[in-house]
Amino acid sequence: MRGLMRNEHHSRMSAAERQNQLLEVAMTLFSRRGFKGTTTKEIAAAAGVAEAVIFQHFPSKEALYSAVLELHLEASDEPRWVAEISDYMERNDDEGVFRSFVRRILHNYRSDPMIERVVLFAALEGHEQGVARLHKQFSPVFERLIAYVTRRQREGALLDCNPHAILIALGGAAHQYGLIKQIIRGPMPDLDDEEMAQSFTRILLRGVQTPEAPENSRGKRKAKK
């Protein structure tokens, strides 16, 4: 009886409801198996519909995949975050900029780990459509960050090195933590995102050694007697 009621509910779905259902089911499967490892037949079975129903709403698996990315990436609060980090940039608040950058990465992993899995699969599979969609959304912000770091280097506020290295070092730590915590689910304390963002930012800006560290621990050789 429960299965019958479920099928009746499926049959009463509007076109918009059906489309949203297919997107959510597809998202779950794409996040588990990637684009190549997921078939439209499997998506249809998980949604409780015939495979032909998928193609009534999406012309191809590629179109369905693209719609999944659009749904989850466009639903983020990107404009609010861009406004926040832009404010830090205008005030030359390096710590605020970097902390906001890390906080955003950690927030994405915690709030929507499935889209992070889809992104990872896209990179591993070499799925050009998925990678291109991500570049379209995130490249403008990353370019602004690079421009900010470069300007602050000219002003003498930041270390004179490749600006990409600075952001990769900071973003890499955040992505690694998010990957272990939310995707791999390895042994990791459940630390607050704000605490981790502050810690990663402090490490990048100040290092891990204290000013009182012994000289030999800072790479200096002891003088020979």
Helix-strand blueprint:
Elements: H1 2-11, H2 15-33, H3 40-47, H4 51-57, H5 61-74, H6 78-90, H7 94-111, H8 113-125, H9 128-154, H10 163-184, H11 193-206
Helix pairs in contact: 2-3, 2-5, 2-8, 3-4, 5-9, 6-7, 7-8, 7-10, 7-11, 8-9, 9-10, 10-11
How would you explain this protein's 3D organization?
This protein has 225 residues and is an all-alpha fold. The protein has 2 domains: 2-60, Homeodomain-like (Arc Repressor Mutant, subunit A); 76-208, Tetracycline Repressor, domain 2, CATH 1.10.357.10. It is 73% helix and 0% strand. The chain has 11 helices and no strands. The protein has helices spanning 2-11, 15-33, 40-47, 51-57, 61-74, 78-90, 94-111, 113-125, 128-154, 163-184, 193-206. α2 (15-33) crosses α5 (61-74). The N and C termini lie far apart (89 Å). Mean pLDDT is 86; it is low at 1-9 and 221-225.
Shape: elongated
Number of strands: 0
For the largest beta-sheet, the strand count, sense and barrel status come to:
none
Please tell me the overall pLDDT.
Answer: 86
Radius of gyration from CA coordinates: 23 Å
Number of domains: 2
Percent strand equals: under 5%
Going by CATH, the architecture of the largest domain would be: Orthogonal Bundle
Q: Kindly, what is the distance between the CA atoms of the first and last residues, rounded to a whole number of angstroms?
A: 89 Å
**Secondary structure tally, helices:** 11
Relevant CATH superfamily of the largest domain: Tetracycline Repressor, domain 2
Instruction: Name the quaternary structure.
Output: single chain
Structural class: mainly alpha
* CATH overall fold name of the largest domain: Tetracycline Repressor, domain 2
